[in-house]
Design a protein that fits this description.
globular; 481 residues
Length: 481
């Protein structure tokens, strides 16, 4: 299951779909493409990529995406709701009657259905119907998508620098697969590793069709900096078990990557650091606290509050941006706090904690099956440990230069609270080499944004704001003077 950092799997938006822990193992690499120049068949084929926006109270919306595939008998399909961290949730039944153009979906996992009629007069085709869940009906229009997402900042070979794939051994007996990009000259250069946020991601930190680490590595290398980025353990071409790993396991992997990079003849050992995004920023702090030899760290949208407080702050920020009423927000935050407190109560057996969590969720309108899945997620090794981690325990021990980069529209790791907590922790040890850059209008992904909500991430063409791509290498080079 892919964890999108910080989006609480239990944020109880009004009328929200309980989807976040229902992801399947099927991974979607890109949008289904169709050629609009190819004549349409006489026999209608509904396979492809369909999406529509579900309007919720308070002016918020939820983008539902269905990938429909031709099966041995009829069709099969999968549901993706990216802002809730759901990818390729299997749809139980997919039906299409060409004689009446009627189309229907039954998603048993979340007790939801969709029924509508295909309108072939529109371009592209659309399906006008009703999405129903828990006794509530919502109008929904699905449109067929023919084109891939536009990502103008993506880069591809040939590069104006050396790019080589590497295998990095770890102390746990598996290897990390990564890519090193470096200038073509024979000199030594400042060097960094890139550490991804939470959830299993590839070396490009690909999310929502964006490849932020590909774009960042390109900018850094063009600026004369060596970059190593790796697939997370258990993902892409890397070995190991990522599903049951914790933040500290991923920190061990980052340490192995850093040690590997330090042995390279083109690495300037005195300017060797870590750039982490989101949870990766926390990992940068953990590594730097353990290893004073690390020259610098860059924290991109990094947390300063402990996991529990961060998720509660995040829940409130997201719901406020969605326009929900204060009473709804307070109730949702209170419920989440109760669940987190139960999950952290190690004096109680995990079995009893699971039962209590499930009981509370069912009382709040969740089905028993989904409540079970949610309790398993809350009590998973990663989530349970993340709730308890206090970044101050590590940042208070750091003496190296630190660059903190945050956006005013970050609702996942809100700038207010987290940046101050980082500054306070760094001040404990008298660290005066701290640079803070709060960038106006940027979201958690450091994209220019309107609301900052995760619903925008995919639709924004910019992968990383140009100010970030200029700021980070300039700051790293300044350390040499």
């Amino acid at each position: 299951m892919k964890r999108l950092f910080g989006i609480s799997i239990l944020v109880m938006f009004s009328l929200v779909l309980f989807l976040s822990s229902c992801a399947s193992s099927k991974q979607m690499d890109s949008l289904v493409k169709e050629d609009p120049m190819v004549p349409k068949k006489t026999t209608l084929d509904i396979s492809g990529w369909w999406e529509g926006s579900l309007s919720l109270p308070g002016g918020s919306s939820l983008l539902l995406q269905f990938e429909v595939e031709t099966a041995q008998e009829g069709y099969s399909s999968f549901l993706t709701v990216r802002q809730q961290g759901v990818h390729d949730l299997p749809v139980s039944t997919t039906s299409f009657d060409q004689s009446s153009n009627s189309f229907s979906l039954n998603i048993e996992t979340i007790k939801a259905t969709f029924a509508g009629n295909l309108d072939t007069a529109t371009d592209p085709y659309s399906i006008v119907g009703t999405f129903s869940q828990s006794g509530l009906d919502f109008p929904l229009v699905l449109e067929k998508k023919f084109t891939a997402l536009i990502r103008p900042q993506d880069v591809s070979a040939p590069f104006p620098y050396i790019s080589e794939d590497v295998e990095i051994p770890t102390a746990n007996g598996f290897s990390l697969a990564g890519t090193i990009t470096r200038p073509k000259d024979e000199g030594v250069h400042p060097a960094v590793i890139l550490v991804t946020g939470s959830g299993l991601q590839d070396r490009n930190e690909e999310l929502f069709g964006h490849k932020p680490f590909l774009v960042l590595a390109d900018a850094l290398t063009k600026a004369g900096i060596v970059v190593l980025r790796c697939d997370d353990r258990g993902y892409g071409k890397s070995g190991g078990d990522g599903i049951n790993a914790t933040t500290f396991d991923f920190a061990q992997d980052a340490k192995a990557a850093l040690s590997y990079l330090a042995t390279m003849p083109y690495t300037e050992k005195d300017v060797l650091g870590v750039i982490g995004h989101s949870e990766g920023a926390l990992i940068a702090g953990i590594l730097s606290a353990q290893d004073p030899a690390i020259s610098f760290i860059v924290l991109l949208s990094g947390p300063g509050l402990d996991g529990k407080d961060l998720l509660l702050q995040q829940s409130r920020a997201i719901m406020q941006r969605q326009g929900l009423g204060q009473d709804q927000i307070d109730a949702a935050v209170a419920l989440n706090k109760t669940l987190y407190d139960i999950a952290l109560d190690t004096a109680t057996s995990q079995e009893d904690r699971a039962k209590e969590i499930q009981s509370i969720l069912v009382k709040n309108g969740m089905s028993e099956k989904v409540a079970l899945q949610q309790s398993e997620s809350l009590l998973s090794a990663w989530f349970n440990m993340f709730l308890a981690i206090d970044p101050a325990d590590y940042f208070s021990k750091i003496t190296c230069p630190v660059l903190i980069v945050s956006g005013t529209n970050d609702v996942q790791v809100p700038t207010e609270g987290n940046v101050k907590a980082l500054q306070d922790a760094l001040a404990v040890n008298g660290n005066t080499h701290v640079t803070v850059k709060i960038l106006e209008g940027l979201n958690h992904m450091l994209q220019p944004s309107v609301s900052g909500l995760p619903t925008e991430y995919e639709s924004i063409e910019t992968t990383l704001d140009p100010s970030v791509l200029s700021l980070v290498p300039t700051w790293i080079h300044s350390l040499k003077h």
